[in-house]
Amino acid sequence: MASSSASSPRLPTAPRCSFASDNASGVHPAVIEALAAANHGHALAYGADAWTERATAQIRDLFDVPAVVVFTWGGTGANVVGLQCLLAPYEAVICPDTAHINVDECGAPERFTGSKLIAVPTPDGKLRPEQIAEHTHLLGDIHHVQPRVVSITQSTELGTLYQPDEIAALVEVAHAHGMKVHVDGARLANAAAALGGDLRQFTVDVGVDVLTFGGTKNGMMYGEAVVFLDPELGRAAQFVRKQAGQLPSKMRYVSAQFEALLTDDVWLANARHANAMAELLAERAKAIPGVELQRDPEVNSVFVTIPRAALAPMQAWSFFWEWDPAITEVRWMTSFDTTEADIETFVAGVALLVDEHAGL
Predict the structure, then answer these.
(1) How many Å apart are CA 248 and CA 351, to the nearest integer?
(2) The dihedral of CA 175, 177, 179, 182: what is its sign?
(3) Where are any strands of DSSP class E within the chain?
(4) Residue 12 burial (C-beta neighbours within 10 Å; 0-12, 13-18, 19+)
């Protein structure tokens, strides 16, 4: 989004695409068409419709297990529903300190589950098995909350990616101590695309119990799915979802979107494109003097440091979020609808503003 405060006469018009977040992207044409098609006639509410039946079957086929699948309005609600089905109020969730459930959900998981989050510092957003083991001494002690769930994000909030064997190692430790493993999959599609397209290899095959399957960041208007890969854990999910305010009455409009994404692997094509655009953006950006790439992108996020004086003018020209103020690290996100032209325009503007402000 352009702003009059970015007034350099040489500065190009801000790109059509925002690099602030994949939440800023539009809706995929196939999803819009599916919504329009679902809008003809009437259908029973609360999931008793053909779209929900088909989308549920598609997700079960994707994971090749008889999963319990419940659709929700959004990601925070999906995480709350998934976790609440696993927890008692005297139990706790072990998660990275950068986890969305810990940082960006306004305390919703703790409020609605009544359970404590044990936030563990990590350098890259990824838990290690030994960090779970460090908390197992609390088990059985009536004076302490009982660790019950290990929650990870795939891909992580820092744009990093768990390899299947890394998740398998976490699951092994968790299950050995009677804990369940929950995956926040807001960008599950991007992770799958980066790992070759097979969701099972880092979920079902390594023993993950429950996950959220994100749609909003991958071309949907709204909506996420909670997938209980162990169906026994989802016995109460329908009731928990209702109580949590996450039961859409006109469910077909969420389900139709998932059906559109899952048909012909649109979900995977979207994620592959977003990831590829991040690679291109990183390649172009690191060539700009004064811009330092912090790590090669693994999915659809690019983290760089920029000169402090250039930050405000850049944000005024084409907004994005500052990630770490201590070093002026910023995050640029790509989406299914990011184009090479958007990237070239953005990089040109960044280069100009860095050049104008680097010495200030």
Answers:
(1) 45
(2) negative
(3) 68-72, 91-96, 116-120, 146-153, 180-184, 210-214, 224-228, 292-293, 301-305, 321-324, 329-333
(4) middle
Whether the ω angle into residue 155 lies within 30 degrees of 0, i.e. cis, is yes
Write down how long the chain is: 360
Does the pLDDT at position 339 exceed 60? yes
pLDDT at residue 359, as a whole number: 63
Looking at this protein, which amino acid is placed at residue 61? D
Q: How far apart are CA 58 and CA 42, in angstroms?
A: 23
pTM over 0.90: yes
- Please provide the average confidence, as pLDDT, over all residues in the chain: 96
263-319: pLDDT as tens digits: 999 999 999 999 999 999 999 999 999 999 999 999 999 999 999 999 999 999 999
Start-end of H helices in 122-265: 129-133, 164-176, 188-194, 237-243, 252-262
Nearest 5 degrees, angle CA 288-CA 294-CA 296? 90
* Count of Cβ atoms closer than 10 Å to residue 236 Cβ: 13
pLDDT of residue 5: 43
Q: How far apart are CA 282 and CA 296, in angstroms?
A: 7
Q: What's the whole-number mean pLDDT along residues 182-194?
A: 98
Where do the domains of the chain lie, and which CATH numbers do they carry?
22-26+267-357 (3.90.1150.10), 29-266 (3.40.640.10)
Neighbours of 32 (CB within 10 A): 15
Average pLDDT over residues 198-226: 98
* Closest C-alpha among 97, 51, 48, 108 to residue 74: 108
Q: Is 45 helix (H, G, I), strand (E, B) or coil?
A: coil
CA 245 to chain CA centroid, Å, is: 21
Contact 85, 210 (CB under 8 A): yes
